[in-house]
Design a protein that fits this description.
The structure holds 3 protein chains of 3 kinds. Chain B is of the alpha+beta class. Helix content of chain B is about 45%, strand content about 10%. Chain B contains 11 helices and 4 strands, in the order H-H-H-H-E-E-H-E-H-E-H-H-H-H-H. Chain C folds into 4 domains: about 80 residues, Roll (Ubiquitin-like (UB roll)), CATH 3.10.20.740; about 140 residues, Alpha-Beta Plaits, CATH 3.30.70; about 220 residues, 3-Layer(aba) Sandwich (Rossmann fold); about 100 residues, Cobalt-precorrin-4 Transmethylase, domain 1 (3-Layer(aba) Sandwich). In chain C, the strands form 7 sheets. Chain C has a 7-stranded mixed beta sheet, covered by helices on one side. In chain C, strands 2-1-5-3-4 form a 5-stranded mixed beta sheet, with helices on both faces. In chain C, strands 19-18-20-21 form a 4-stranded parallel beta sheet. Chain C starts with 6 loop residues before the first strand and ends in a 19-residue tail after the last helix. The relative contact order of chain C is 0.10. The mean pLDDT of chain C is about 90. Classes of the chains: A alpha+beta, B alpha+beta, C alpha/beta.
Chain lengths: ~170, ~300, ~625
């Protein structure tokens, strides 16, 4: 081995280290998923959200237009009538049952297009992994927007409890 | 009501004289006359609505055919005549048809009663020979426009008829001549308007009258008059939109000739003629967002 | 060839069509396949021409003419799609929608609404009406069955005309006038009509809706089955609409020969009683307790007990069972168990001896071709088959004299000797009386005298035809002195085992107190029924079967029309009744190998030739019997 190479050894070593250190201080491009999530574009089509009015009443009237617009038929809606005792939405009719099969859903957003009351929109949530197919049936409670903070502890009546209560990871 | 009392008295006299009732003048023929008072609905001036109302149902026109002469009151053949016709009869009977036919114009024989109202000095009922110029009715018999003002417009035949202008004053008072001038002699109710009149407001009030009197049977009349009344309200009170006159014209097209009876058709004639002659007044209402005549009229009042 | 004078030829949109005189332009156009939009016009009601949707151009007529009210004339030239007509159609829809709430998303009519459909086809894309809409009361309860939404109403008068012209009750009327016009009952009293459901069907918008069907489903979600109403022996044709395997509603399925397109409220709103709740399994009583077992076990247990009783078994069938089931059950009892004790219905021994094929029966549709109709029994007969009232009222409007009488003597007096065609309508229970009246009338009047007898249950007539009674065999065959006893006499006849076959909650066994006591003492009670019954406590074997709306087969209506019923809801959790009957028979040693109800029907046809597979939907013709 020529002496010259031996003398240059530390030089190359330092050069390599410099590259390493340079990258050490550069901004990070990855994030700590799933603890942190990237904000999605505003019009991204993630899991659906059922909206409420400012007074906490549900916007959905159970018209089933989303269900008929859905190209894969993954939405099931059953409607019922509001009564003075159980007022869920402002008008005469509300959705008693609202279920979306998220495994079948193709996230096309046609339900959102079809909705005459802007009750359903595609939300930002896209990471819907879970460990059992049953857990992908999103029921109304899963989809509904939380009550506005001002109404958080008022008892706003909701529809009859859904049939299944499975803890979901999403 | 004195009129009905008068008629009742006349009927009693006729009955006492044996002209009506059982065995008229010993001829063995029975005929009686019954005076029935309506409840005042305009639609019941339509002959079939009149019959429906007489039968005790809602005053609504019936489908024609069958015409009343075939199937009228209680399904029996019925002749429906106007008071005007009946009022002319005694004179014709007394003086003969030739006397009657000698008056008037070749196409409109005899006389007619014109009921003049509005801004004239002497409103009232005037029986004139057919063909008499309108100018004579308004300026001689009616004593001219009140308060020394000038004529703005007039309606020759009743609430539904198209408006005519001062330039039509020399038109003769007969059916053909008035029709040629672009209006109709109709019921002979002459309404005269002076220069301070807001023609939009006149149309508004007339349309509201038709909206109120519409029986609601057919769609164009029920919905159309309501809509037109809303539009006129909006224009008159300064909330009109630039397209409103054209919308009114289009609505007139959709109502006229398409409603069940002439009431719906008639509700559009006056507004449409007004838009034809006085479109600038509509524009003025819409642009100025107020009625240009309102201040003036209130000052007059 | 002679000139046919009652035909006229006209041109619609350039196509020539020849129709009978007195045809409306609308119908002439329909014959050509040209659709003219309508709201107020209804084929069964007098034209009123109020909605003005159907205006068309007719040559030589200055104004547009309502196609629903103008009759055709020879040489008429009609144009339905000119620019003027289209502009008017657009205009009238704009008028109709001006004050319509457009709450289609919550309206039960949404999806099958003529106003919606026609707006899409003929209407404007947007409204120019920018004022606040008129407001009326919404969801006004007209009765316990119907809700009225006055905002959606387009005042087509169909419901008021139905009330006046079809049911004759005049319960609905127009109130107020002009823009304030509304539909309502007198003084807002609840409507009492028995035919209110029809209002919801003829309403061209969502103004009149059914309370039972309220928000149940969208029309496109319904599974529609063409079947027969389980209400009574009228045999009205219905569409049974189910969603998620739950019945949502019955709708009329027009059959001019039977129902004329109408239903009564009893039949129409009877469907909730057919709703199956949960899964049921056969049960056998062991040591006094009912235990769930398999069908095979239960059938074997039933067979074992029945074999013991043998000819001391009595069989009762619901008059809502199908012909196929009745035939099999009849064979099971007569051939396998060799018992003569068969009965159905309320078992009043209904004319059990005087049975004969009703060849000369008056077809329902011929009521309006009679000149005198005797309603022997009055309202009671109507209550047994309410749609008959609509038929009779229609006949009356056509000039038929309908006499509502209670005894035969009054009936005989009511009909004049010069009557041409007399119809007698009564219940089957009064058959002997009707027979003698028919005889006396036939001697009195010049014309024909025919009768229409109303049995109990949707297949009461089939039960009689197939010999499901103690007196006659299938097809009224003589039993050669081996006649059995009717239901009231079973106790006296020493019956030890009872096989009850219920098929509809509307026509179940309905045991009286005495009967219950007697049944309690029996050694064997086999109960085959579609849903829990009050007799469950007394039964030894319970075989869950299917209800009327869950099975396939044929039923025979009062005039002898054999009509097909189809399963409207899937009841795969329970076994078909004919399979159960076959299973019991096989367990008793019979060699039955039917694979489907059609094979049963083929066998049935051999025993009763009047019932022919190629004539389902028609009346059974007895005189053609070879």
């Amino acid at each position: 081995m020529p002496l010259r190479d031996v003398a240059l050894g530390p030089y190359y070593l330092l050069k390599a280290m410099a590259t390493t250190f340079k990258h050490n201080v550069r901004p990070v491009v990855t994030i700590e998923y799933p603890e942190r999530q990237k904000p999605v574009p505003p019009r991204a089509r993630g899991r659906h959200i059922l909206h409420r009015y400012a007074d906490g009443l549900e916007k959905c009237v159970g018209c089933e237009l989303c269900a008929i617009a859905c190209p894969v038929g993954c939405i099931v809606v059953e409607a019922a009538e509001n009564t003075p005792e159980l007022r869920v939405s402002p008008g005469e009719r509300y959705a008693k049952r609202y279920e979306i099969n998220l495994l079948r859903c193709i996230y096309c957003g046609l339900c959102e297009e079809a909705c005459p009351y802007d009750a359903i929109t595609m939300g930002p949530r896209y990471d819907l992994a879970d460990d059992h197919p049953d857990k992908f049936i999103a029921v109304k409670e899963d989809l509904l927007e939380p009550l506005p903070a001002s109404l958080a502890d008022t008892a706003v009546p909701s529809a009859a409890p859904s049939a299944q209560k499975i803890p979901r990871k999403w | 009501m004195p009129q009905t009392e008068l008629l009742e008295t006349a009927l009693e006299e006729a009955r006492a004289a044996g002209y009506i009732g059982r065995n008229v003048l010993g001829s063995g023929f029975d005929v009686d006359v019954l005076l029935h008072r309506g409840a005042g609905a305009y639609i019941c001036g339509e002959e079939t609505a009149l019959l429906t109302s007489l039968e005790g149902y809602r005053g609504e026109p019936r489908l024609k055919p069958p015409f009343p002469a075939v199937k009228g009151l209680y399904g029996k053949p019925t002749v429906v005549n106007n008071v005007e016709t009946l009022a002319t009869l005694p004179h014709i009977v007394r003086n003969g048809p030739d006397w009657f036919a000698a008056m008037g114009t070749p196409t409109g024989k005899g006389t007619r009663v014109w009921c003049m109202s509005g801004h004239v000095n002497r409103p009232g009922n005037y029986e004139l020979e057919m063909g008499t110029p309108i100018r004579e009715l308004i300026y001689e018999h009616g004593g001219g426009i009140w308060k020394g003002r000038s004529l703005k417009a007039f309606q020759p035949g009743g609430a539904s008829m198209m408006v005519l202008l001062p330039e039509h004053l020399d038109v003769g008072l007969d059916f053909d001549a008035i029709a040629k001038a672009g209006s109709m002699a109709g019921a002979g109710a002459m309404m005269v308007m002076d220069e301070t009149t807001c023609i939009v407001d006149v149309a508004r009030r007339l349309v509201k009258f038709f909206e109120h009197e519409s029986c609601g049977k057919c769609t164009p009349c029920r919905e159309g008059t309501y809509w037109m009344a809303n539009l006129f309200d909006r224009i008159e009170f300064g909330e009109g939109k630039p397209g409103d006159p054209d919308l009114l014209l289009d609505m007139g097209y959709n109502i006229d000739g398409r409603s069940f009876c002439p009431l719906g058709d008639a509700s559009t004639w006056f507004p449409r003629s007004v838009i034809k002659y006085f479109r600038d007044e509509f524009e003025q209402h819409i642009v100025e967002k107020a009625c240009p005549f309102r201040g003036e009229r209130e000052a007059v009042a | 060839m002679a000139v046919v004078t009652d035909q006229v030829t006209l041109t619609v949109d350039g196509q020539s069509v020849t129709v009978a005189k007195g045809t409306l332009i609308l119908d002439a156009a329909k014959k050509l396949g040209i659709e003219i939009p309508i709201f107020c016009s209804h084929p069964k009601m007098e034209p009123v021409a109020v909605c003005r949707m159907c205006l068309v151009e007719v040559e030589k007529m200055p104004k547009l003419q309502p196609a629903c009210a103008v009759y055709v004339m020879d040489g008429m030239v009609v144009r339905t799609r000119t620019e003027q007509v289209q502009r008017y159609q657009n205009g009238v829809l704009e008028f109709l929608l001006a004050n319509h709430p457009l709450d289609c998303p919550i309206c039960d009519k949404g999806g099958e609404c003529p106003l919606q459909d026609q707006t899409y086809t003929y209407g404007p894309g947007a409204s120019r009406y920018d004022f606040p809409k008129k407001h009326f009361d919404k969801a006004v309860p007209l009765s316990d069955k119907i809700l009225l939404d006055r905002e959606r109403c387009v005042l087509c008068w169909r419901c008021t005309r139905f009330s006046a012209e079809i049911s004759g009750e005049r319960e609905l009327a127009l109130i107020q006038r002009g823009k304030d016009t509304i539909i309502g009952t007198f003084n807002d009293q609840p409507a009492r009509s028995e035919y209110q459901g029809n209002w919801t069907e003829i309403c061209p918008v969502g103004a009149l809706t059914s309370r039972q069907y309220r928000f149940i489903s969208r029309p496109w979600d319904l599974d529609r089955t063409a079947t027969i109403c389980p209400g009574c022996s009228m045999g009205c044709n219905v569409h049974a609409d189910a969603r998620h395997n739950r019945l949502g509603r019955f709708q009329a399925r027009e059959n001019l020969a039977v129902d004329d397109g109408w239903l009564c409220d009893f039949g129409r709103y009877s469907f909730p009683s057919f709703q199956r709740e949960g899964i049921e399994r056969p049960r056998v009583r062991r040591d006094g307790r009912l235990e769930e077992v398999s069908y095979e076990e239960a059938m074997a247990a039933a067979a074992q007990s029945l074999r013991r009783a043998g000819p001391a078994t009595a069989g009762w069938a619901s008059p809502a069972a199908t012909n196929e089931e009745l035939f099999l059950f009849q064979r099971l009892l007569r051939e396998v168990l060799a018992t003569p004790h068969l009965d159905h219905g309320r078992g009043r021994g209904e004319a059990a001896t005087a049975l004969e094929p009703d060849d000369a029966a008056l077809p329902i549709a011929d009521l309006e071709r009679c000149d005198h109709v005797l309603l022997l029994g009055g309202q009671a007969v109507i209550d047994a088959a309410p749609v008959l009232h609509l038929r009779l009222f229609k006949s009356e409007r056509k000039g038929v004299r309908v006499h509502r009488v209670d005894d035969a003597r009054a009936a005989l007096e009511a009909v004049p000797a010069e009557a041409q065609a007399v119809g007698i309508v009564s219940s089957l229970g009064r058959k002997p009386e009707v027979d003698s009246l028919q005889g006396k009338l036939a001697r009195k009047v010049k014309g024909s005298v025919r009768r229409l007898l109303v049995p109990d249950g949707p297949n009461g007539r089939g039960a009689t035809d197939l010999g499901f009674g103690p007196g006659r065999g299938p097809g009224y065959a003589s039993l050669d002195g081996k006649a059995g006893r009717a239901r009231p006499d079973w106790e006296a006849a020493g019956v030890r085992a009872l096989y009850l076959f219920e098929a509809s909650p509307l026509h179940d066994f309905q045991a009286s107190g005495e009967e219950r006591e007697w049944i309690q003492r029996l050694e064997t009670v086999v109960l085959q029924r579609p849903r829990p019954s009050p007799l469950d406590d007394l039964a030894h074997v319970i075989l869950p079967g299917r209800a009327f709306v869950e099975k396939a087969g044929t039923v025979t209506n009062m005039e002898g029309r054999v009509q097909r019923i189809r399963p409207a809801i899937d009841a795969a959790v329970v076994r078909d009744d004919w399979k159960i009957l076959q299973g019991v028979a096989q367990a008793l040693g019979a060699d039955w190998r039917y694979r489907d109800p059609d094979e049963v029907f083929a066998d049935l046809s051999r025993a009763v030739p009047a019932y022919r597979a190629d004539r389902i939907g028609e009346r059974a013709l007895w005189s053609e019997r070879a």
